[in-house]
Amino acid sequence: MKSKRDFQFDAIVIGGGIAGLQSALDLGDQGYTVAVVDKDATIGGKMIRLSKVFPTLDCASCITTPKMSSAAHHDNITLFTYCTLDNLKRESPDRVVAQLTQKPRYVDPDKCIGCRKCEYDCPVYVPDDEQGGFNMRKAIYIPFSNAIPQIALLDAENCALCGKCAKVCPTDAVDYFMKPEAITLTASTAVLATGFELSPLDQKPQYGLGRLQNVVSSMQMERLLAPHGPYNRVLRPSDGREPDSIAYVQCAGSRDKSLGIPYCSRVCCMYAIKQAMLLSGALPLADITIYYMDIRAFGKGYEQFYQNAKAMGIEFVKAKVAQISQADDQKVMLRYEDQEGSGGVMERDHDLVILSLGMVPQWNPEGICSVGCGQDGFIKPAIPKIAPTVTDLEGVFTAGVASGPKDIVDTITEAGAAAMEAANYLKALNGSTA
Amino acid sequence: MSDEIKKQETAEPRVGVYICHCGGNISDHVDVKKVAEAVKDIPGVEVSHTDMFMCSDPGQELIQKDIKEGSINRVVVASCAPSLHELTFRGAISRADMNPYLYEHANIREQDSWVHHGDPATSKAVTLVAAAIAKARGLKPLEAIRVDAANHATIIGGGIAGLRAAVDLAASGIEVALIEKTPFLGGNASKLDRVFPTSEKAGDLIAYLADTVMKSPLITIYPCSEITGFEGYIGNFTLTVSKKPPADAVPGDIREKYFHPFAGYYPGQTPTEASEESLTTGVIIFATGFELYEPSRGEFGYGDNEEVITLRQLIRDMADSPQDSGTLRINNRTVRRVAMIHCVGSRQIPGIHEADEDDYLNEYCSRTCCTATLQAALEIRDRYPDTQVLDFYRDIRTYGHNQEDYYDRASEKNVLFFRYEPDESPVITRESGEYPLTVRVRDKLTFNEEIEVGVDLVVLATGMQAAPITSLVEMMKLPVGSDKFLQEVHPKLRPVEMANGGIFLAGTSQAPMDINEVCNAAQAAAAKTVALLGKGYVELDPFVAAVETDKCKGSGKCIEECPEKAITMNGNLAEVNPALCTGCGMCVAVCPENAIDVQGWSLQEYEDMVDAIVKF
After folding, report:
1. Which of B13, B182, B482, B554 is 20 to 30 A from A408 (CA-CA)?
2. Hey, is B324 helix, strand or coil?
3. pTM (2 decimals)?
4. May I ask the CATH class of domain B2-144?
């Protein structure tokens, strides 16, 4: 595949989540030109998919969308969405090259006006991953209502090729023959803000995720609580009833050597407490129990948030859950070691169980980029204490969860630090770029 | 198109009203459709829309579309507090080529839906929006005030945060004044031996940064100095720096310019007499750090028993000890068994812990003590295998990179863990027996049994608390949180900025952090500084006093009242320096001729708002 399009920037930011956007904004505001590359069809990363965020309980959108919008409209920032990173190479001290593949949207981004007529007319329904799989989207669609850019994409795997979208499109933007396109970005510095995926639990079948209907992931619960959520209320998946008894299983895919994830994911305690608080607002009569190993409320205002949750009547049980199984009446049974009180093995039924999943790296640089990673798979900071965003690859920096689990506050701060390092790298190269 | 919009700005007001659901934050309590309906017929209102998230791109585009189509020339958004998104919407309006000051923000979240419910919430929203519409109708186009900015930043505090920020700013070509109140650089980190999780010497980290600072021609270090005077505004602050010889002379053996363990990096230049200097600076960075919690007398036996020490003291004693085998010795006494107690002066709970005279408690977690305690516990087990370690904790918070490993290894090395509840904290007593001290605690992990154990030493993991910088806080009118740390504008939107323009936060002046988190914060603050000062000018909001020259009779009353000394007499007329004016309105209240008014917040605009509030 020959590169059809070549672009030149001061900096390349890999990842358009909150870390990448903040780094891009801080570089752009210093006068540097920045390319932001995202594998998804929209920027915003994991944060835009959340409901509300701890400890302020602001809606995630209220913080993310303005930063997305600022980046999208910034004179110095160019977005490359729906692109895979095939190669990122430092060629010389002032030259880092990224090879991308622009995946075909089957919709011409220059023509699409985001009117969604195609989406309304499409007859194909597909489970919507953006909504935790709880409801359906079309085969041609805009990812979600505050996605940027507001450009449709066609899911070729599920498209029935009925031609309705092409017919209804007022700008003739649908193109079934669109091909992947190679893009080359050249810059002097790069920031890796590749973020995370939720811990996979396929090695932990005893937790029942994907098998027991009323066991859901914490991200699915974010969607159930979100303003644009699938049901606009919290319902139990098996029968659509409001749950009376809800349980959180902490450290599901963190601090668990059996899964090869020995580390703490830093956010799960707080997001579980946050969700529990939101649930007690949405379902005032429901009993909520959090099964935990240690409550790690270490950030600014977090401990107070935890104490408030206790005062609201949320129950905290120090226990390691061993097994989750189906109980009568579509309930879910937790079998756990009660580490306090009388001790021993206990069993308890709940209507709905949420697994507080941890974080694993979203990106494996192997074969793509020579940046060094730690045993945990996250990018390894080369000077972890006093320059945490410096990697072992010259002039390439890391921001946010790419180098290890972090909450949003720490991620945003680190993104600013990465921008500072990248800016000073540029400054040192040519004195007065800005 | 753009000229057309400019022409529209002075035409008859046509207001666009945009009401935000805030994803349920507002619409769960306020019937936003009803509000939109209620205000749509107010004279001057052209359109009245609602949206799930007005601040999102599609929301902003809704406003821009109405502007570009020429249907509106004033904008009212009813959403969250203006501190969050007033700038977002002004920016959107600017991008549609309209004057961004033809905009009024109604706060129907913090001031309404978060505190009221049901019909009263909806009716209050109608009132607030109607008032905003009334004000918007009278708004006039304004221009931002552009003032030159000094290419200079002042960093208060020469610890890790201050050093880190200084290095980055100098690399960006910004001149730096680094103000440090002691004769040494390095701050609290100087009191550490090795740092987790890398086991590097804290002194090496400090020396690396301090060496760079010392070599930089752009950085001036002011040891033994404090800020005693402050005036000016973002981009143009004037500070008085007062130097004073230290109370205790710096001993001769640590007067070499490098790092001295447990003292700090000696930069030289210790003053021998007091002096004062004036600095003009564009940005001020608070890297003022923290102070360690000092346990009160009798708290876990502290002060009453010399066998009760703080973790900081233990680290110091172990670093000084040449011995690496057998049993730990502290103060020439053999420590067969040591108790380490977490959360001393952290995670305090009202009603359980004893509040100070201001009814204040450290309710927060200090973030670093768990790992630091386990690091010390492991060092004891590694170096002195005959000393037994007991660990009394509430939750083990080894959250950071490779920190969980300390917890694992401590368990492997037979550190014994006991979990206590804050209302049944360990009690330390002196008893005659095999051990000088006895620890009594109800252990949650063994069926709530009361456990009694003799120990030779008790180590308290004391937390961080806000540094005593009250005089700076008062002088610069800085926001402080209920935890006494400096308060950022918003932890996610603007985590290293304070509400005071041009004043930034770096490190533990804001909240407890470990060293790498401190460095991230310091570098983020440096990035904000470079973005702000890089252009050579800053833009200030034009909400400042303006004199109507045909009305002013030169009474001079405004000059007497102005707290910012922003008004002077030019001939017979009062004249405002817009860069100094904060728009407080004191002058407006005293002018006998009503000849002075605050732009964008005029008396007429207030009257219009009050009229609307009475009506709706």
Report:
1. B482
2. coil
3. 0.93
4. alpha beta
